[in-house]
Write a structure and sequence with these properties.
The complex is a heterodimer of chains A (737) and B (141).
Chain A lengths: L9 H5 L3 H31 L4 H21 L2 H18 L7 H24 L8 H9 L16 H9 L5 H4 L6 H26 L5 H24 E3 L7 H11 L4 E6 L4 E3 H22 L3 H6 L6 E10 L2 E8 L6 H10 L5 H6 L2 H6 L9 H6 L7 H10 L3 E7 L3 E9 L4 E9 L2 E6 L3 E8 L3 H4 E4 L2 E6 L2 E7 H4 L17 E9 L2 E7 L1 E9 L13 E6 L5 E5 L1 H7 L4 H9 L13 E6 L5 E5 L3 E8 L4 E3 L2 E6 L2 E7 H4 L11 H4 L4 E8 L4 E6 L1 E7 L5 E3 L6 E7 L2 E6 L1 H8 L7
Parallel strand pairs in A: 2-4, 9-18, 13-15, 20-30, 24-26
Antiparallel strand pairs in A: 1-3, 4-5, 5-7, 6-7, 8-9, 8-16, 10-14, 11-12, 12-13, 14-15, 17-18, 19-20, 19-27, 21-25, 22-23, 23-24, 25-26, 28-29, 29-30
Chain B lengths: L2 E9 L2 E6 L3 E5 L14 E7 L2 E7 H4 L12 E7 L2 E7 L1 E9 L3 E2 L13 E6 L4 E5 L1 H5 L3
Parallel strand pairs in B: 2-11, 5-7
Antiparallel strand pairs in B: 1-2, 1-8, 3-6, 4-5, 6-7, 9-10, 10-11
The chains are: A alpha+beta (737), B mainly beta (141).
């Protein structure tokens, strides 16, 4: 449905009531905003492909309407400006002037100027103190119907023009109105009618004990409620194209500023998205599109040299898939330089050398979303790609979306956002803390874990004052929700036999940080309707909203990022705490992680985790004999097998048995060891754990050949395997000395 | 003679009133969800037919004595801008029509935080009626 355009009409002009004026101005703002959007897209289309009479007519009509309304409202300056633009359009229409880049720039500048005036109009109901003389002159010099005057250049610099584009200069009232299809509105009214009927039946039924009205009406009520919910959701949906309108302009200005030729193609503008999401994805999209033009598409010369057309392509697409909205930004530019990304990632310690070798191209490409890539130095190293992509990722993840990218060197790249259809209804986990109930958005939850009382002392440790949880060999910082909320801190339960007390931990992921949140109780996952936070609670970072729970009481929605911020679970903070202090002896190597495994005789060995390629469970039937050595066929090659007693000196005197015959069990637990020199399978009795030497692990001297030292972990001594000994044991000749 | 209608209520023995035009409705006891970290004057959040609104404890707002834990309260729902806010009072009294000639500005000696919330005083026959600025009381400080 379209609300009628405000047209000058004598009878309305007589009505001079203040509230009436306010309503008219509001209509003017909404209409003008839409006209300006249309003008921008039409002018750019005209610039690209000459003189489509329909488009010229459309721009003409838009300026004409703006002019008429401004005249009626008494906005003389705006009226004169729109008039100049309109008459230039009329010359274009009559073929007396041909469309040029200068004309397009001038017309776009007019649109910007009018748009900039709108906030003043909204606030004061007047056009304010504006002067468009120079802009009018710029239009009039292009128009043979006017006397030539001094020539004005376009924007003094593009940056200024771009700044205008980025400022939120659309008045707020246009954001607060939605156009709704009349049919949809009628349907909603119907549902409300049904709702009233159902209520009447329930009231009636309750008055007559034993009546069957109530169950039937309750059933109807359920159906109506979900229809109503869907209907209202639908009314909130808006085409995604409404946040794309500024992008053609952005592409044009960015391309001009870096001397590139770029076509923007947009597909799927009609894809509908909840309005709560539109604003949330606007910034990330703008960023990605600008990146594609600025860093993706090559200069015309480079493109020619690469045998590509001079004009680069940036494609923006949107579609629905599996209950989500997918938005893609692709370019046919140079793509990511993966070897360089790898180099930078290693140099910056974002990944270690081992990971760099084994990482797939796809995983490597995702590294540009990591925080370390957004620093200035990285910008130059990576020819600017990856600028602020971590920010984009954070923004997308905040609304429960995901982001990934595909790239091929020389062919281009595609960044793909997947976002939910709405932010108004989310999945949330209900937790209890200090007598209150709180909702944690499912999107920020990585896992749930429960530490029984008797294991608390073993699994929960402290690195200085910070509690940490040993979770699968890694240390997870812990945050006590009660402490964050300023309530009495949660007391960790004592290890009492048969106690069913436990520490409940929700592992959260926020802004690439993982941390465990200690809560009193973990409840169910519910679908909740997100409601805004009262103004009285503004500025409390740990809350993101409120909701009404199924029992009608209010629950507060927690913000994982806010909690992380408040609790200081920031990457560098944790690193600092771990890196400082007497726990780290000067002679000790940097923090290492080990895989802990046991021998058949009960001894333990520790293998530096970076040398562990994979863990395999082999069948003894797979083991073959090659000379003096046991081998298996493994991933298209031959992997020699050694047993722990072949690595450590003293035990080598024992007669060597064939693995296939010696192992009592059928399965052989094998650690595929790879230190870049030696690649070998080490057969162990049992693979136990991954340990981290920051958590109370002590390093002692090597007891014998084959080990490079000992560590004590959980009260047990383990020998650190020596790379040379492994290499010796793995030598094809086997037992030679 | 100009007359105004005030919705009156009692807070720690004081008779207070706000313009009836500022009052949306009055609620009996309602389930409050307490909010850690909030301003101490915020006694919690309540569900008003699907809208979640904040409840401001007038005793705390006006720096009066703390209410006994078991004491029953009444919510006077004020519409302040786009948002409704509940003023938690001890009990609601009548709607009184008062005329401008019983009105006096707050006494000079009244200073401190509550001063900002008090518009003036009506001299009723048997007692004084404090007129509060509903919107200001209901807004975050």
């Amino acid at each position: 449905m379209r609300v009628g355009i405000v047209q000058p009409s004598p009878e309305r002009k007589l009505v001079d009531d203040a509230s009436d004026i306010a309503a008219i101005v509001k209509d003017f703002l909404v209409e003008t905003g839409e006209h300006l959007d249309r003008i921008t897209s039409d002018v750019m289309a005209l610039e690209a492909n000459g003189s489509d009479p329909e488009r010229i007519a459309s721009v003409f009509r838009s300026f004409h309407t703006i002019k008429g309304t401004c005249a009626w409202l008494g906005f003389a300056q705006l009226e004169a400006l729109a008039h100049s633009a309109e008459s230039l359009l009329s010359s274009l229409r009559d073929g007396r002037v041909r469309m040029t880049t200068d004309i397009a720039s001038a017309l776009l500048a007019v649109g910007d100027a009018i748009r900039r005036t709108l906030p003043t109009v909204e606030a004061t109901h007047s056009e304010g103190d504006v002067d468009f003389a120079s802009l009018r002159e710029r239009l009039d010099t292009q128009n043979p119907d006017y006397e030539p005057a001094t020539v004005h250049r376009g924007f003094a610099n593009v940056a200024e023009a771009l700044k205008d584009l980025h400022e939120p200069n659309v008045p707020a009232s246009t954001d607060r109105t939605v156009r709704v299809d009349v049919h949809l509105l009628d349907r909603l009214l119907n549902h409300v009618g049904e709702l009233v009927l159902a209520r009447n039946q329930i009231v009636q039924g309750l008055a007559q004990p034993g009546s069957t009205l109530v169950p039937a009406a309750t059933q109807r009520l359920k159906a109506i409620t979900s229809e109503l919910q869907q209907g209202v959701m639908k009314a909130r949906l808006q085409p995604i194209g409404s946040v794309w309108t500024a992008l053609p302009r952005l592409v044009r200005e960015t391309a001009k500023s870096v001397d590139k030729l770029v076509h923007l193609e947009m597909v799927g503008q009609d894809t509908e998205v909840d309005r709560s999401l539109l604003q949330a994805i606007k910034d990330p999209l703008t960023h990605l599109v600008r990146n594609a033009v600025d860093h993706g598409v090559e200069t015309p010369e480079a493109r020619r040299a690469a045998g590509k057309p001079e004009h680069g392509f940036v494609r923006l697409g949107a579609y629905h898939e599996g209950g989500q909205v997918v938005v893609e930004v692709s370019d046919d530019g140079a793509g990511l330089d993966l070897p360089r990304i790898k180099g930078v990632a290693v140099a910056r310690n974002i990944i270690d050398t081992q990971a760099a070798v084994t990482m797939s191209e796809r995983d490597l490409a995702q590294l540009v979303f990591r925080a370390g890539f957004s620093t200035r130095q990285a910008v130059t190293n990576l020819s600017g790609r990856g600028v602020g992509l971590d920010v984009v990722k954070t923004q997308v993840e905040r609304i429960g979306g995901t982001i990934d990218l595909d790239t091929k060197r020389g062919v281009g790249m595609t960044v793909r956002l997947r976002v939910p259809l709405t932010l108004a209804i989310i999945q949330a986990l209900i937790v209890r803390c200090g007598g209150g109930r709180y909702a944690l958005p499912q999107v920020s939850i990585a896992e749930l874990t429960r530490v029984p009382a008797e294991q608390v002392s073993k699994l929960i440790d402290k690195v200085y004052a910070s509690p940490v949880l040993r979770l699968r060999g890694a240390l997870l910082p812990l945050v006590d929700l009660a402490t964050v909320l300023g309530l009495p801190p949660t007391r960790l339960p004592e290890a009492v036999p048969d106690s069913d007390e436990a520490v409940n931990i929700v592992v959260l992921e926020a802004a690439r940080q993982r941390f465990g949140l200690i809560v009193d109780n973990i409840g169910d996952t519910e679908e909740i309707v997100v409601k805004p936070l009262s103004r009285h609670l503004d500025g409390i970072p740990v809350y993101s909203g409120v909701t009404v729970m199924s029992d009608g009481k209010v629950g507060i929605i927690l913000d994982a990022q806010g909690i992380a911020r408040v609790a200081n679970v920031l990457e560098h903070e944790v690193a600092n705490r771990e890196g400082k202090g007497p726990a780290q002896r000067p002679e000790e190597p940097a923090r290492r992680r080990y895989l802990l495994a046991s021998f058949r005789d009960g001894g333990h060995m520790a293998i530096p985790l970076e040398h562990v390629d994979r863990l395999e469970e082999l069948r003894s039937l797979q083991v073959e004999r090659l000379g003096a050595r046991d081998v298996v066929q493994y991933r298209g090659g031959v992997l020699p097998l050694v047993r722990s007693n072949e690595i450590f000196e003293e035990r080598r005197r024992k007669p060597r048995e064939r693995a296939s015959a010696a192992e009592p069990s059928d399965a052989l637990f094998t650690i595929v060891y790879d230190d870049d020199i030696t690649r070998v399978g080490i057969i162990v009795e049992r693979i136990m754990d991954v340990i981290d030497d920051v958590s109370g692990v002590e390093v002692g001297p090597a007891p014998r050949r084959g080990s490079s030292g000992t560590i004590i972990v959980d009260g047990r001594v383990a020998e650190i395997i020596d790379a040379d000994a492994v290499a010796r044991a793995a030598r094809p000749s086997g037992d030679t000395t | 003679m100009k007359e105004t209608q005030l919705c009156t209520f009692v807070v720690d023995g004081l008779l207070c009133g706000v313009s009836v035009f500022d009052v949306q409705e009055v609620l009996r006891e309602s389930d409050l969800t307490t909010v850690p970290l909030a301003d101490p004057a915020i006694s919690g959040l309540l569900n008003l037919r699907g809208d979640v609104i904040a409840a401001v404890d007038l005793r705390r707002r006006l720096h009066l004595r703390e209410r006994e834990a078991a004491a029953s309260v009444t919510h006077v729902i004020i519409r302040a801008g786009d948002e409704a806010v509940s003023l938690v009072v001890d009990a609601v009294e009548d709607v009184l029509t008062v005329s401008a000639d019983s009105f006096e500005p707050p006494p000079q000696t009244l200073i401190g935080a509550p001063r900002a919330f008090i518009v003036g005083v009506h001299k009723l026959e048997s007692r004084l009626l404090l007129v509060l600025d509903a919107k200001r009381v209901a807004s975050p400080t």
